[in-house]
Amino acid sequence: MTDATPVLRLEGIVKTFPGVRALDGVDLELRPGEVHALMGENGAGKSTLMKVLGGILQPNEGRILIDEAPVVMTSPLEAKGKGVVFIHQELSLADELSVAENIFLGELPRKRFGRVDWTRLYATTDAILKTLNVRFDARTRVGDLSIANQQMVEIARALTVSPRAVIFDEPTASLTDAEKVVLFDVIEDLKAKGVGIIYISHRMEEIFRITDRISVLRDGQYRGTLRTAETTEDEVTQLMIGRSLDLSRSPVRHALGKVALEVRGLSCGHLYRDVSFSVREGEVLGFYGLVGAGRTEIAETLFGLRTPSAGSIRVNGDEVRIGSPVDAIRHGIGLVPEDRKGQGLVLGMNCRDNMTLPQVDDLSTGPFVSDGAEVAIFDQYRDRLDIRTPGWRQIVGNLSGGNQQKIVIGKWLSMRPQVLIVDEPTRGIDVGSKSEIHNLIRDLAAQGYAVIVISSEMPEVLHVSDRIAAMYSGRIMRTFAAEEVTEDSLIQAISGLEPEKVA
Amino acid sequence: MAALTREAAGRLLARQGILVAFAVFMVVFALANPRFIDIGNVAGVIRSSAILGVMALGVTFVVIGGNLDLSVGSMMSFSTIVVLDLHDTLGPALAIPAMFALTLCLGAFIGILVGYLKLNSLIVTLGMLSAIHGLTLMWSGGKNMDIADKAGTWFGIFGRGDVLGIPVPILIFALLAVVLSVVLSRTPFGRKVYAVGGNGTAATFSGVPRARVVFLTYILSAFCVAIAGLMQASRSLGSQNTVGQGMELEVLAAVILGGASLLGGAGTIFKTVIGVLILGFIQNGLLLMGLEFYVQYVVTWVIIILAVWLDIAAKRSRLWSPIA
Amino acid sequence: MAQTTTFTAAAPPDDAPVRKPRSQLVVQGAIWGFVVLELIFFSVAGRFLSNSDTAFLDLDNMLLLLKQSAPIGIIALGMTIVMINGNIDLSVGATFALSAIVLLDSMTWPFMQALGDWAIPLAWIFALATGTALGFVNGLVVWKTGVDAFIVTLGSMLGYRGLVFMYNGEQPTSHLNWTLVDFAEAQFLGLHTATWFLLGTALVLWLVMTRTVHGRNAYAIGNNREAAVNAGIRVGPHFLLNFMLIGFLAALSAVVFYSESGSVNPNDGMLYELWAITAVVLGGTKLAGGYGSIISTLGGVVAIQLLRKGLGYIGADTETVNLVIGLILIAVLFLDRQLNRKGSEELKT
Lengths: 503, 324, 349
Fold this sequence. Notes:
CATH architecture of the largest domain in chain A: 3-Layer(aba) Sandwich
Shape of chain A: globular
Number of helices of chain A: 18
Number of strands of chain A: 20
Oligomer: heterotrimer
InterPro entries (chain C): ABC_transp_permease
Structural class of chain B: mainly alpha
CATH superfamily of the largest domain in chain A: P-loop containing nucleotide triphosphate hydrolases
Number of domains of chain B: 1
Number of helices of chain B: 13
Pfam family, one (chain C): BPD_transp_2
Strand content of chain A: 15-25%
Distance between the termini of chain B: 33 Å
Protein name (chain C): Ribose ABC transporter
Helix content of chain B: over 70%
GO molecular function, one term (chain C): transmembrane transporter activity
Number of domains of chain A: 2
Subcellular location (chain C): Cell membrane
CATH topology of the largest domain in chain A: Rossmann fold
C-alpha cells in the first residue's frame, strides 16, 4: 500500500449541516500518478466532500494533508495555490472573455498602472494550449467554443499551477465519444506527470476504463476502496447501494389497449428528423440515446413547446395541432420535464399549489380557487404516491429530490392524462426513491396509461420499457421490443451504426 | 431553548418584520406627539396616501409576476391630463370612460411588449416613461390643464367628496385593496401570477399561459393608474403635465417596503398597503415634528435599505453579506 | 463495456473548434451607423422642413451638440462600467445635484473667497470628493449588505435628493465666478471645454476597460460572478471602486455643467439616471452585465443628443423628443432580441 507518499490524504472528515450529517468520518488517499474514482449515489456526500477539498466548505472535524502536511483551505483560490484544482461539471467560464483571460481569471499578468500584460498573457496561454493539442488560440472568445473545447479551457486553467491533484466532476456528461477520447488522453498525460486525479462519474464503463482505484461513499460514510483491476461492476454497485440492485425486467405482462399516441414523420429543424412512433394504452415506450440525440426535443414538441417543421401527431386516432402546453393538456398529454427544479416546480410555492397548478381553473368554484377540492386532490396523490411531507403547506423547495419528483408526477396524474411523458425520471434522486419511481411507472402502465420514458440510463430503460426507441443524432435508429433487446445492440444503435449492420 | 426562541423570533421578524417595524414606529411617534394618532390626522394621512396607494396595488401584481413598472408615474400624469381635457369637451360622464380606455391601451401596449414579446420590463417601462411623458406634453401642448367651470361640476367627488363622512379617496383605496387582495390570494389568476413570477418556465411547463398572465398584470396596473389619475384630477380639478413625475419610484419603494421581492413570486396586497401607510405616516410624522418634507426622503432611504437588508439577512441567516 | 470505444468513428463530426459567432448587429458599430443615419435624415429633412438658415451639419451646430452631450454623457460612461458589472446606479441625478451645490456654495465660503481664483480648483476638489463619497456609500452598502444595487440606489436616489434639499431648502444655490465661466466657455482646437472633458473621460475609461486588470475583471464579474469569485477576484471592493467612480463622474459632470451656469435648483439632475441608462442601453450594453463598450455608449449619448436637436431643427415640438426616444429604446431592445433568436427551433417558454 505504500508504494509512494500520497499527494493528498483525507482523515476522518466530518461535515454537518443543520439536521444532517453530510460527511461522517471520510478517509481518502490519493497517490501520485493514480486515477482514483469517487463513486456514490446522489446524496452520498460526493459533492460535499469535493466542496471541502476545494475550500468552499470547512470541515467540522478531520484533517486534509497535502504531501503529508496538514493544510487548511478557506477558499477555492487557496486550494488552487496548494495544488488542488477542480474541473467543474458546470463550467465556470466567462463567455464574453477570451480563452486567455479565462485561464488567468483573477491572476492576469500586470504591467505598471494595473495594465494587463497582453504579450505575456497570450504567450503563456498559447504555450499551455499547445500541450493540450487543441485547435483554438488564446484570443478566441470562449462563448464561441464548443462545450468540449470549453472544458479544455477549464483544464488549461488547472495547468497554470503545477497541480498536485486534479478533480474531475462528471467531465464526460456532455461530450461526444470522440471528445471523450481527447479528454482521456489529457488525463493520461497528467497521470504520467505524477499528478493524482480524482475522477467522479456515474458511468461504469469509463470508471473501469481509466481509473486505478475506486472509493465509494454511501450516506456520507466512507465504504471502502477497491482496485479497479480486481473488482467488478456488481461489487462496486453493491458497495454503493448496500445491496444488489435488481434491474431485471419486471415480469408482469398485461394486455395493451388502443393506440393512444401516434407520431408520423415528425421533424424539427436540425434537432430531429422524420421521427415516427406510436404508444398504446398500457404500454411504456422508452427513448434511449445520448444527450443531444433529440429525445427531449421530441417530448417538448409533443407538449407544444416547439413547433415541428413537418409531420403529424394523432391522439386517439385524431390528428391534432399542439401549439402550446395548454393545447397539449387539452389533448391529454402530460410532461414530467427533465429539469425538475427549473421546469417542473415553482420551488417557492407550497406542495398543493404546485400539484394543482395546471387545473387551478377547473378546480375553482365561481371566480375563486377551491381550497377544499385542491387539498382533496393533494391528499389523494400524497397517499397514492407516498409523498413524504409534513403537509400541503410545505414549501416544495424544502422537500427531497424524490419527493419533489413525486409532486411533479402527481401534478400530471391528477389530470388523468392519455399520455404521460417522463423525461429522465430519476435524475438526481436517491436509490430508494429511484426504484419506487420505476415501480410507479410500471403501475401506471398496468392501469392503462400510455407512458413515454426518456432516459440516459440504460438499466432504467431496460427495466421499465415494453419497447425501446434508440435515438442517434436526431433520428430513431431502431425500435426494439423488450424481449429482443440486448445491451450490445442498444449501444450500437445509439452510436450511429446503421440498423442493418447491427443485425 | 434560548436558541430556539431566538430562532423563532428571527422567523417572526423575517416574516412579519415590516409589521413589527410599523408598530414600533407608530408607538414611538405617538408617544412623541399624541396628535399623530388623532383620528383626523390618521384619516388625513390615508387620504393623502390614497393615490400613491392605488398605483402601488397594481404595481404589486406586476412585481409579483416578476417584472417592473417604471411607467406608472408618467402614465398617471397622462390619465390626469386627458380626463381634465376631455371633461370640458366631452363632459365628465364620457371623459372618464374615454380616459380609462386610453390608459388601458397604454397598459396593453406594455403588456404586449413584456408579456408576448418577452422584452426586458425595466427597459420597456423606462422607454414608456419617456414616451408617455411625450404623449402627455403633446396632448396638453405643454400647458397646464384646468377645468373651466370648477364650481359647476360633480367631477370633484372622486378626490374631494365624502360618503357617510368618509373621504371618497379612502373608500376607493380600501375597496380596491380588498378586491385586489381577494383577486391575488383567492382566484386562479392570482395563483398564476405567483407561479409565473416564482418560476416562469415551470409555470409554462404546467400549462399556465405565461405571456397572457404578464399581459394582464400590466392591464391591471394601468387600470389602477387610471383610477389614480381620476382621483388626482378630481382632487385638484386642474393639473400640471408632470403631476405623477417620480411617483414610479415612490410606488416601487412602497411595494419593496411591503416585502415584495423584485425577483417575483413573493408579496401580498396587505403588505403593500402597509408599505404605503409607512411612507405616508413617516412623511406626516416628520411634518408634525416640524421638519421639512424633504427630511422624509432621507428617512425613507434608510428605512427601505434597512427593511430589505433585514429581510435578506434573515433568509441567509447572517447579517453581513458573504460577498468577499 | 469497453466496446463503446470502437464506435467512436461514427460520432458526428465536430471539426470546427470555433462555433459561428452569434448574430450581433446591435453591437459596437451599429450605434454609430444609427448616428450617421440620423445625420443624413435630419440634413435632408431639414432642407424641406427647417426654417433655419444654417444647415443641420453646420460645424458650430455640431460642436454645440457635443458640448450639450457632455453632462449626460460623462454620467453614462460611468453607468456603462457599473452596468457591465451587472449593477445599476439610480442615484446619479441626485449625486449630480449635490455635487453642484457643493461646487457653487463652497466658493462663497469666506476662506475660499480669500483665496481668489485659487478657490476654483479647491471647489472642484470639494465637489468631486462629494460625488465620490456618495458613490462610496452606495458601494459600501451594496458590498456589505448584499442588497441588490437597484434597490440600494433607488433608496439613495431619494435620500441624496433629501440631502440636496436640506442643504439650501427649496432655494436655488447660485454663485457666478467669471473666471470659471470663461474657462467653461473656452474652445480649444474648436472643441468646448465640456467636450474635452467628455472625450477625455471616454478615452480614460476606454483604456481602463480594455487594457487594465480592473476593466477586464469588471467584464468577468458581470459575465459569471461565481467564476470570478472562485478565481479570487474580490467582488465587493471591485463594486465599491466602481460606485465611487460613477459618483466621481456624476460630480465631474456637475463641475463641467455648473461652472458655466452658476445656479443649481434643488430639482436639477432629476431623470438624469434614466437618460444615462437609455444612452448605455442604446449603445448595446447588456442589462444583465458582462457585455458592453465605452465607445458604443458614447455613440448612444451622441445619438440621443442628435435626436433632441434634430427634431427641434426640423420643427417638431420638443414634446415629441420624449416620445421618439422612448420608442427608439424599445425598438432597439426588440431588434436586439429578434437578431439573437434561434428561429423556429427555439423553445417556446
